[in-house]
Every structure is written in C-alpha cells, then in structure tokens.
Write a structure and sequence with these properties.
Layout lengths: L13 E5 L30 E3 L7 E5 L2 E5 L1 H14 L2 E5 L6 H11 L8 E6 L2 H14 L8 E5 L2 E3 L7 E5 H10 L6 E6 L7 H16 L4 E6 L4 H9 L7 E5 L7 E6 L6 H15 L4 E5 L3 H14 L9 E7 L5 H8 L6 E7 L2 H4 L6 E6 L2 E8 L4 E8 L2 H9 L7 E5 L3 H5 L15 H9 L16 H13 L11 H8 L4 H13 L2 H11 L10 H12 L7 H14 L4 H6 L4 H20 L11 H12 L3 E4 L5 E3 L5 E4 L14 E9 L3 E8 L2 H18 L1
Parallel strand pairs: 5-11, 5-12, 6-9, 6-10, 7-9, 10-11, 13-20, 14-16, 14-17, 15-16, 17-20, 19-24, 23-25
Antiparallel strand pairs: 1-13, 2-3, 3-4, 7-8, 18-19, 21-22, 21-24, 22-23, 24-25
The structure holds one DNA strand of 9 nucleotides.
DNA sequence: CTCGCCCCG
C-alpha cells in the first residue's frame, strides 16, 4: 500500500505522485529569464510585469524578477498600467481567478468605455457569453442589456447607446469585422479562453493583429489559462516594437486538488473507471464523482457496468447513482445532472469532454480522468472529416483535475501512469489545423485578405486544406480564376451558412422554390432533430419518424417535419408525442428567419415549388453536385468524385431502401468505422452533369 | 446491414 496523507484513502495499485499542500491550480511563479515548467519562456526577459495576483486578499507581484507585496488596489493599477502602456496584454490565469468578470470592470472604471466606446470580451461558447454577462451586470447592479450586455447568434441583449461592456462569442465579433473592418466602436477587445484555440479565436487574433497596425489606439487583451502565453507574445511581437506586448499572470483561487496516477497502464479504461468509481464510493467521504470518458458508447458501457455492480453494494454504504452526461441528452436528462444528490446517495456523473469547460457541476469532489478525448479531424486529401480518440493534453488534464476543486478540496484519479502524463502534448492541436477552411477563407477574402500564404496565422492551416478550400470556392464560383471574390462570393461571405447551402439559396431563384429551400437549409444546419432513444422507446420513435418519411429522401423528410411542426402551432407537446426535439426545431425556426432576411436583402424571391419535387431536387443538386454517389450491388454507394465506398448512415430514410434511380446527393460524409453519408436525396444522374460540366468547361477554358 | 466529441455564424 502506498502511503498517502489522506488517511481514508486505500487503493493498493495507485501511485501517488503529486500531493500539493497549496493548490494544483495556482500558477507556478516564474521569474523573467528562467524557463517555466513545460513551457518555453526563454525570451521572458522581454517580459516586464510577470506576476500580478488577482485575489481579494493581497498576494505577490513580481516586477523584473523582484517580488514585493502589494495591496489589491495596486494590482489593479498595475494591470491597468499594462493595458495603457502596451498594445497587447496577455493575461495568464486559471479558471477562478476572476479575469473574465473582473478585468472588463476594471477597464470600465478606468475610463476605457468613455466617449461611447465599448469594451468587448469574447468567448468561444454562447453559454459562457450569456452567463458571464448576467453575473457581471448583477455585480454592477445594472439591468442586463444596458451597461453590460451580450451578443450571440439570434440574441442581442445589448443597447447601442448604453452598453459599455459587451460579452460576445468570438464568431460574432469575427463576423462584425466583415461590416466594420477596424472594429471602430471598441476601445479594448479581450479575447478570453484563447488557449482553447477555437477556429474563430485564431481568425480573430489574426485580424486584430492587422487592425492594431492601422488603429494603434485599440487595446487587445488575450486571456489564456495555460503557460503557452509566450506563443501569443511571439505572435504579436513579431517584427514590431518590444513594447507592443507583455505578459501578466494572475493567481487563481481554487481549493487544493490531489492528483493520483495509476501505477500501470490499463487496457480497458471504461472498466477501470467503473472500478475506481466503485472504490471511491466505498472508501471516501461525501462528494460527487465526475468521470471523463470519450463518447456515448463508453459512457453507456460504464453506466451499465456500475448498474450491474449496484446489487452487491453493502447495505450500509452510500448509494451510488450513475448519471450519463453528453451533448445528445434531452433537457430533462440534463436537469438530472444538476439536482443535488439525495441524502445518503452519491452522484457519479459519467461524461464526455463537455464537462471539461462547457458544463460546470458544483459539488464534485472526485474526478476520474481516462486521459482520452474524441476530436474531429479533417483530411484535406479526401475532404473527409472523422472522429479520432486521442490522448488529452497537459492543459486538458489540468483543467479536468480542477473540476474536483471548485467548492472544496478534491482528488483527481488519472487512469494512466505518471510516465504517460509526462509525455502528453502540452496543448491540443488548434482547430484551424484540423478543419475544413472553405467558409473561413471566403470570409477572409471578403475582408480583403487575398494572399493567404502571406497572412500571419497564429497557426497556419495545412497548405493542402487551403488549396482544397480555394478549389471548392472556385468550383462554386465564389472566386474567379485569379482567386478574387466574385459578386456572388461577396454576398455569400455574409451568409451564415456553408458555401454549398448558400449556392442552393441563390439558385432557388431559377428553380422557383425559395420557400422550401429556405426550410431545408435551416433544417440541415441543426442536428439531432429526431430523438432516437435506445430499446423499446427507440422503436416507437422510429415509427413516429416514418410518418414524415418522404420517398425522395432525407431533405424532403426534414421539410415534411418542419412543415408539420409549423402546422401544429410549433408546440413542445406536439414534438414530444412525435419524438422530435423541440429545442432543435426552435433553432431551425430562428435560422430560417435569419436566412430569409438575407434572401430578401439579395432580392431572391421566396416562392413555393407548389409540390414540384423534381424542381426542388434539382435545386438541391445545384448546391450538392460535388456530393454525388451511385448505388453499388453490395448495398453501399460509390462517390462520383474518387469512387470512395460510402455507407448510408442508419438515420437516413434511404438506409433500408435503395435509391430508385441508383443515384443520390448527400449533405455530408464522415469517417467512423466506415465512411458514412448523412442526409441523402435521390436524383437523376444527368442533373449532376449540369453543374459538373459547367465547372469542368471553365477549367478547360483556363488551360 | 445500425449511430451522434465539442462548438461557432
């Protein structure tokens, strides 16, 4: 048995490597000129203000390597001094240090929002933007939407005149640059959670760097949880004045979290997770358990495993309640996660990565970390997206551990040895390196950024991805042979949909089916319309879904479902009785009305095809012509481009039935165990040629 | 013959 300073803790095959007396979450203090743990801080001599603890109590502040004690108001002044003096301030601080809520308030009080200017704070997720805005507006004692507001897609709770602090999604601010390229209404832009490296964070940083050169009065605060801050500093310093950028570090306030590692690697982390949860329940005091696994399949298995063990639980032991958590849950199921455990019971929440940053559950004292995550990766050569299970990064592991210390001291059990942890990559690869760039590149072109090879990326997307995107844009006539935006390209760049879908919206004028195409465009943008639970309820749901099934395929089926939803008063009750997600349908309604406004702006008629399904299908082909496939005798399809073997996704109405013509177009393909295509519609093969020929002819002309 | 990591506009 391994000794541990927690005397109640007895699991023989664990090796306890880190037992912190203070806190896992507090930042390692580093001095300029020395390298911090696992990070390249060699050029830290350029760093002037290295440590400014944020805390209601005082703490340490280090200026040029000298530590001194300062009361809190001086820390605030120091921070503001940095923003005043430097164009770009990189703020390092873990969750809980208050940077998201406090920093914008400091800036407001210091007068950065005078003269009608606005302080923006961007978030990668909508939920964060809305909830933080609510909290800050409460702290300031103002009504949400006045002095403090938020802007996310479909929700603008802000006022042009009154709002001084604006929380928004990074995608929203990036989109705003299309309208106002200098973002002139803002005095300070704080890019929060930059370490997550969402694609819009990266694009935004790229644009902000350019804006700074033209509008030096703009201040940028980049906030990041990990010590990869030097990467951002290098980015902003590149070839400019050394005063352009500095790093400030804030100390987080978290309860201590002990971290325990498995002595040896496990071949089956799902089973191991169940075992560890079981042991925690028997050996530890009160507190809920949060388990990180990779996907729904893992989660269901783990819950099943625990449920099977429950009958053998000693009568006197705490009762264990396994609860799955992933994005596909209904609202009711999600609410169960947040209900406090009943007396004498303990919640074991078995979750995907959603609980790492998006969903916060208080009362968790024990975290079990499988060390794996599922991420989406994109292969530009085949233009195929797939889901890969990969080891997490050090940053992720730290964030997961921190979930145990939100309300009390906790313990994190890592289901892998310390030696494995030491070899983990520091950060996950940025999204921009593993995603399709067609839409982002169209938007950059619209911003006048034409030379993508010269553009200063924080991390450049693979050249192949850029070439694929340009090829796709050219094929859809969004750019000309010189790479310049066409008239339609300019308009499509403004539309919040994928290029193919936008193409469909525009050609609906020729096919006289704007009404229906609008609905289909909105429905394909929303996932999980039909709720298919496991077992008997699943079979019933399947029967309900058949009521909407259209002969032509999935696009028409989605159209039927939307029309029925509208016909029956858009009610939640109707959705429930037809196994349809009310949440998803409401979102489709919002998206449809937003897209309708764009169509009206571009003078596209919104007329009905009056039941002429052929016309509608041909309009679909105008957007999807590159996604054609032909039936093969073994029941799969072959892609028109490249002859790939494609299996129909089981949720398709064409899963059990062959396309009558033998030809289909599809909305998207994804690689799982097989390469699967989702949302299919049967077509006549010559419809494909209309568009394919036009594209090929254009290419021949060039040669 | 069977399937959904997480997000953004």
């Amino acid at each position: 048995m391994i000794a541990c300073n927690n005397k109640h803790y007895r699991v023989p095959n664990w090796a306890i490597h880190i037992l912190r007396t203070t806190t896992v979450m507090s930042l390692t203090f580093w001095k300029p000129g020395t390298a911090g743990p696992g990070s390249n801080l060699d050029r830290a001599s350029q760093v002037e203000e290295s440590i400014v603890p944020y805390a209601p109590q005082d703490g340490y502040l280090s200026v040029r390597g000298q530590q001194e004690r300062l009361p809190i108001f001086k820390h605030r002044e120091k921070l503001l001094y940095c923003v005043e003096k430097h164009g770009v301030v990189i703020v390092v601080g873990q969750t809980g240090c208050g940077k998201t809520t406090q920093l914008p308030q400091y800036l407001l009080q210091a007068g950065w929002a005078d003269d009608g200017h606005v302080i923006a704070c961007t978030q990668p997720r909508r939920i964060a933007a809305t909830s933080v805005a609510g909290r800050v507006s409460e702290e300031l004692g103002t009504k949400l939407g006045e002095e403090v507001g938020y802007t996310i897609r479909f929700e603008d709770v802000s006022s042009k005149e009154a709002t001084r602090i604006l929380y928004m999604t990074d995608g929203m601010l990036f989109r705003e640059t299309l309208v106002d390229p200098l973002l002139s209404r803002y005095s300070v832009i704080m890019v929060d959670e930059a370490h997550e490296r969402s694609i819009y964070t990266d694009l935004l940083l790229g644009v902000l760097r350019k804006i700074r050169k033209q509008r030096p009065s703009l201040r940028i605060v980049v906030s990041s949880a990990t010590l990869d801050a030097t990467k951002f500093m290098d980015y902003f310093l590149h070839g400019s004045d050394p005063n352009e950028c500095t790093i400030v570090s804030l100390e987080g306030r978290m309860y201590p979290v002990e971290v325990a590692y498995l002595a040896e690697s496990t071949p089956d982390y799902t089973k191991k997770a169940a075992e560890v949860v079981w042991n925690i329940n028997l050996q530890q005091g009160p507190g809920d358990i949060l388990v990180f696994l990779t996907g729904r399949e893992d989660i269901d298995n783990c819950c099943q495993e625990l449920s099977d063990m429950l009958p053998s639980l000693p009568a006197r032991a705490t009762k264990l309640v396994p609860l799955p958590l992933h994005a596909g849950l209904t609202t009711d199921e999600q609410l169960r996660i947040f209900q406090p455990a009943a007396p004498g019971t303990r919640k074991a929440i078995i979750s995907t990565n959603i609980a790492e940053a998006s969903v916060t559950i208080d009362g968790v004292k024990f975290v079990v970390d499988s060390g794996f995550v599922k991420i989406r990766v994109y292969n530009p050569t085949t233009s195929l997206a797939s889901l890969a299970t990969v080891p997490i990064s050090v940053a992720s592991a730290t964030q997961r551990a921190g979930r145990a210390g939100r309300t009390a001291p906790g313990i994190c059990y890592r289901l892998y040895p310390k030696a494995v942890f030491d070899k983990l990559p520091l950060t996950t690869s940025p999204e921009i390196t593993r995603t399709d760039m067609t839409t982002p590149i169209l938007q950059l072109k619209s911003l006048g950024i034409d030379d993508l090879m010269k553009f200063n990326w924080v991390s450049a997307p693979p050249a192949e991805t850029v070439l694929r995107a340009l090829e796709g844009l050219h094929a859809a006539s969004m750019i000309d042979e010189y790479g310049k935006l066409t008239r339609i390209g300019e308009q499509v760049a403004e539309c919040p949909v994928e290029v193919g879908i936008a193409r469909m919206l525009f050609s609906s004028k020729d096919y006289k089916c704007g009404e229906e195409i609008l609905t289909i465009a909105a429905m394909t943008a929303v996932q999980d319309i039909f709720i298919i639970p496991d077992g008997a309820p699943g079979a019933l749901a399947e029967l309900e879904r058949r009521k909407f099934t259209a002969e032509e395929g999935d696009h028409f089926t989605l159209l039927n479902a939307y029309n029925a939803f509208t016909r029956y008063g858009k009610s939640a009750g109707w959705c429930k009785s037809h196994a349809i997600s009310f949440r998803a349908m409401s979102r489709a309604v919002s998206i449809r009305s937003q897209l309708k406004k764009y169509m009206q702006r571009f003078d596209l008629p919104i007329e009905s095809c009056e039941g002429d399904s052929k016309r509608l299908a041909r309009c679909l082909v105008s957007g999807y012509w590159r996604n054609g496939a032909r039936w093969a005798p073994d029941g799969t399809y072959r892609s028109v481009r490249g002859g790939m073997v494609l299996s129909v996704h089981p949720t398709s109405v064409l899963f059990t039935r062959k396309s009558r013509t033998g030809w289909v177009i599809f909305h998207e393909m994804e690689e799982t165990k097989k390469t699967q295509i989702r949302i299919l519609t049967e077509i006549e093969p010559e419809w494909l040629l209309d568009h394919g020929h036009a594209y090929d002819d254009k290419r021949k002309e060039q040669k």
